[in-house]
Amino acid sequence: MPVKNCKHFNGYKPCGKNYTCDNLCPEKTIVSKTILIIHLGAMGSVVRSSALLRKIKSEDSSSFVIWLTSSSVKSILEGHSAIDRLITLDFEGLLKLKNYFFDRVFVVDKSQEAVGVLGFLKYNELYGFVANPKNGAILPASKESEEIWELGIDNHKKFFVNKKSELQLIFESFGFTYQREDYWIELTSSEIKSSKLRKEAWLKMNHKKIILGINTGCSHIIPYKKLTVEKHLDLIKEISQNFPYLQIVLLGGREDLERNNAIKNSIKDVIQSDNLSGLRDGMISVNACDIVISGDSLGMHLGIAFKKFTIAWFGPTCEQEIDLFDLGVKIKTTLDCAPCWKRSCSQEKMCYDHVELEHFIKAVEKGISFFEPTRDRLLESNI
Question: Which of 22, 30, 33, 27 is nearest to 6 (CA)?
Answer without folding.
Answer: 30
